[in-house]
Write a structure and sequence with these properties.
Strand order of the largest sheet: 1-12-7-6-5
Main location: mitochondrion
CATH topology of the largest domain: FAD/NAD(P)-binding domain
GO molecular function, one term: metal ion binding
CATH class of the largest domain: Alpha Beta
Strand content: 25-35%
Largest sheet: 5 strands, antiparallel
Helix content: 10-25%
Family: Belongs to the FAD-dependent oxidoreductase family.
CATH superfamily of the largest domain: FAD/NAD(P)-binding domain
Number of helices: 12
GO biological process, one term: execution phase of apoptosis
Number of strands: 39
Radius of gyration: 25 Å
Shape: globular
InterPro entries: FAD-oxidoreductase/Apoptosis (IPR050446), FAD/NAD-bd_sf (IPR036188), FAD/NAD-binding_dom (IPR023753), FAD/NAD-linked_Rdtase_dimer_sf (IPR016156), Reductase_C (IPR028202), Rieske_2Fe-2S (IPR017941), Rieske_2Fe-2S_sf (IPR036922)
């Protein structure tokens, strides 16, 4: 038997191209404020025969058919690039071998029921189409057609696809802008983070071709905030925001997604469907997505306005901190994810790094005391000094610039730079008189379809609480990058009346001193932690339990256990405490209790 692989357009996308003789889709109709508007899908740049240029094609023999058993994956080399060969339920599939998000090798991921999950950050891809099904990341995998001939496996693929290892799904373009004035749009998205961008892209992918406007207080087009927060962006002193942009400028022009930068919405008139901006500009909308994220908390102590005190929120903040901190004394207030990640990055660059925290152990509420102490020990071995169970009482200056940080314990710390990481609050103040339901903490309350209590108004991302299926539909706030992506997609699908409910498993990661902690589930309120492995060696997996049920998992140097657990939870299977206490991992395959 012989297996051949060639790049093809997924059936769903090819059908869109073949709907009319001229290669374009038949016109669709979408009603905007009662007026029917016609639009076409953009003609896809790849024809139905992807090999119109023979020089772009490579074919190579990679293995014998019997080399792969059901449920196995293999990374195969074609000379000019690699592909991921998969066998499941007796059928062969082939897709790109790298996760388009950060380039993780998918062969080390988890294969389950027609999809492969990234071992690093949990993104999921359909093995039959290559389409992204869970996040983070924006692009899908290139899919290669598999054919069986004789008993050798051959792969035939486009060199370009093998080199890029990513595929942007086909999208519609707006052809009705002339029907609008500047102050009117069909879809208005407030916020340009992951939730807002994925919402806009999903609308276009689903064939929506009316006007989409995104507005943001930022100076920049949507960018990869985790790279900013986790200090990956800071590795170059002369970095530019374009280097961490989620999409280039040309993408927004090509697909007619308008982005208004440095534009802050001050109020929303729900009755008349009008957003009022801080500068007085007003914009009418038909559908609204609120994805404003959160605002960092500030210190309330004396001297809080002193120069060289930062909340890292923008690329400019990040570069400024690195420049000022190099060979200087740094004080970080708050052992939050941001505080700890910044401390880890600056430890090798600053003269000293001190971290002030009200709790007795970092991450105690999130990872538990034992994991928190292990992480704290790692930091201390890397020259980070902790001042726990205390707060800042004063920031002292000399000639207008920060000189010292005074703690309530009486300790005085030398400081040239101070980074604040004491948490954040939802950026929803502008909605207080709008009629949109907001809880006592300022979070927007939505249902499983990301709908607010107001028809046509949706909300997504860090500023919302939503029913989490994993925890019996408990209303939760999950301020993670992956979850913001999914919120945006669900909101877009329901703007188009798809009736789609959110059911994803939360997944996050943090990187410190070259080591990563991965986490899946929702451990809020856990009452015990079961540890497997060695905390002292920083090679462990921690299972967070509530009563007899595992509700979350974290690991370090234990890949791909977190992705495996995420797949079990996504399948709706319960993991019991006794299953993980015994060390028997049969439950991962569904053979245990």
């Amino acid at each position: 038997v012989e297996v051949k692989i060639e790049v093809v357009i997924p059936e769903k996308e090819r059908s869109k191209e073949e709907m009319s003789p001229n290669g374009k889709a038949s016109p669709l109709i979408y009603k905007v404020n009662g007026t029917a508007r016609h639009y076409h899908l953009e003609e896809h740049p790849i024809a139905s025969n992807p090999y119109h240029n023979p020089k772009d094609v490579v074919e190579a023999s990679v293995c014998h058919v019997k080399d792969l058993e059901n449920g196995q994956m293999r990374e195969v080399d074609l000379g000019c690039g690699k592909a991921l060969l998969i066998k499941e339920s007796g059928e062969f599939h082939a897709v790109g071998h790298k996760c388009p998000h950060y380039g993780a090798p998918l062969v080390k991921g988890v294969l389950s029921k027609g999809r492969v999950r990234c071992p690093w950050h949990g993104a999921c891809f359909n093995i039959g189409t290559g389409d992204i099904e869970d996040f983070p990341g924006l692009d899908s995998l290139p899919r290669f057609q598999v054919k069986i001939e004789k008993e050798k496996v051959y792969i035939r693929a486009s060199k370009q696809a093998l080199q890029t290892q990513r595929r942007t799904k086909m999208m519609a373009k707006c052809i009705s802008l002339s029907n609008y004035n500047l102050s009117s749009t069909n879809v208005l998205i407030i916020g340009a983070g992951a939730a807002g961008l994925v919402c806009a892209e999903t609308l276009r992918q689903e064939g929506f071709s009316d006007r989409i406007v995104m507005c943001t207080m930022d100076r920049h087009l949507p960018y990869d905030r985790p790279k900013l927060k986790k200090c990956l962006f800071l590795q170059s002193m002369d970095s530019h925001p374009e280097q961490i942009a989620l999409r280039p400028k040309e993408f927004f022009r090509t697909y007619d997604i308008e982005v208004l930068t440095e534009m802050q919405v001050a109020a929303v008139d729900i009755k008349n469907k009008i957003a009022v901006f801080k500068d007085g500009f007003k914009m009418e909308y038909n559908k609204l997505l609120i994805a404003t994220g959160n605002t960092p908390k500030a210190l309330s102590c004396k001297g809080k306005e002193v120069e060289n005190v930062f909340n890292i929120r923008t690329p400019e903040d990040a570069n400024r901190v690195v420049k000022l901190a190099t060979s200087k004394n740094v004080v970080i207030v708050g052992a939050s994810f941001l505080g700890m990640e910044v401390a880890a990055y600056l430890a090798e660059r600053a003269h000293s790094v001190s971290l002030v925290e009200l709790e007795e152990v970092p991450f105690k509420k999130f990872f538990g005391e034992r994991v928190g102490r292990a992480v704290m020990k790692m930091f201390e071995s890397n020259r980070v000094k902790f001042y726990m169970q205390t707060e800042v009482s004063e920031l002292r200056e000399q000639e207008g610039k920060l000189k010292e940080v005074v703690l309530k314990s009486g300790k005085v710390l030398r400081a040239d730079v101070c980074v604040i990481g004491v948490g954040a609050v939802p950026a929803t103040g502008f909605l207080k008189q709008s009629g949109v339901n907001i809880d006592s903490k300022g979070f927007i309350m939505v249902n499983k379809m990301m709908q607010t209590n107001i028809p046509g108004v949706f909300a997504a991302g860090d500023a919302v609480t939503f029913p989490l299926a994993l925890r019996n539909n408990k209303k939760v706030n999950v301020p993670h990058w992956q979850m913001a992506h999914m919120h945006g997609r669900i909101a877009a699908l329901n703007m188009l009346a798809h009736g789609m409910e959110i059911s994803t498993v939360p997944y996050l990661w943090t990187a410190m001193f070259g080591k990563s902690i991965r986490y899946a589930g929702h451990g809020e309120g856990f009452d015990d932690v079961v540890i497997q492995g060695d905390l002292d060696e920083l090679k462990f997996v921690a299972f967070y339990t509530k009563s007899d049920e595992v509700v979350a998992v974290a690991s370090m140097n234990y890949d791909p256990i977190v992705s495996k657990v995420a797949e079990v939870l996504a399948a709706g299977r319960m993991i019991r405490k006794r299953d993980v206490e015994t060390g028997d991992m049969s439950w991962l395959t569904g053979k245990g209790s």
